Amino acid sequence: MFCKNCGAEMKDDARFCPNCGYDKEGGEAPKSKKVEEDNEVKLHVTPTFNLPYKLICSIGRAFLYFLLIVYFLTGYELLFEFPIIFWGIIGVLAVYVIIHLVLEKMQYNDLQYDFYATKIEYKDGFLNKEEKELKYKYIREVTLNKSIIERMFNMGTIRLFTNASSGMVNNKNHKAAGKNGIYIHCVKDAQEQYKKIKEIIDEGTENED
Questions:
Q1: Parent domain of 18
Q2: Going by C-beta distance under 8 Å and a sequence separation of 6 or more, which residues neighbour residue 191?
Q3: pLDDT at res. 173
Q4: Model pLDDT, residue 16
């Protein structure tokens, strides 16, 4: 006999079609899950280089460096005896802040996070090029963090952790220090983006089950 659903040949005493699974008694073929191909970006996320925010962070970091340099190399009393030392340190740290901001702005221009149906692709084309692909089925946790300063500028940090991720963060290349974790820093409208990312990952995980 032949299947009424797909026309494939099947045994006379068989209830289900070996090709499509059609139930000749129930008259229904099993429902198959919709599988989406990863050929279209569903969400594109790029970190936002917010100059005031970055300036506050860089100046704060430079101030800590200033205290350490003065304490370990010169001593606070020398600042009063030789003001040129004070201004020399300030000048060096000011150059550091400027260079740091310029390099970070250049890196932000090359950072790219593309969310597909079942995976995320991370690309960094600044200096040392790096690319990473992470399947949603390996992601164990998605978190959203907002520091006090980030909340002031309506930004946040979204982290994708896998079982191999350590949870440590590497600010230099904006990703988790674990083997497969990804860290997205300075996300504008982070709460909204976080919800979209969660929905895409949950949907992509269900399709692969």
A1: 1-31
A2: 144, 156
A3: 45
A4: 73
Asked whether the CA dihedral 147, 152, 183, 38 is positive or negative, the reply is positive
Q: For residue 127, how many other CB atoms are within 10 A of its CB? A: 11
Last residue of a domain, one of 77, 107, 137: 107
* Sequence-ordered list of residues with C-beta below 8 angstroms from that of 171, at least 6 positions apart, any chain: 185
Residue 159 makes CB contacts below 8 A (sequence gap 6+) with 141, 142, 143, 145, 169, 176, 181, 182, 183, 184
pLDDT (mean) for 94-119: 91
- Same structural domain for residues 57 and 97? yes
Would residue 198 count as lying in a domain? yes
- Within 13 Å and on the Cβ side, how many CA atoms surround 193? 25
Q: Tokens in use for 110?
A: 């090359």
Q: How far lies 145's CA from each of 107, 122, 154, 173, 194, in Å?
A: 22, 20, 12, 18, 10
> Is pTM, for the whole model, over 0.90?
no
Q: Which pLDDT tens digit goes with each residue over 138-164?
A: 898 999 999 999 999 999 999 998 876
Q: Degrees (nearest 5) of the Cα angle 197, 201, 207?
A: 150
* Number of domains observed in the structure of the chain: 3
Q: Which range (73-77, 100-104, 172-176) has the least confidence?
A: 172-176
Which of 59, 80, 107 lies at the terminal end of a domain, its last residue? 107
Confirm whether 43 is domain-assigned: no
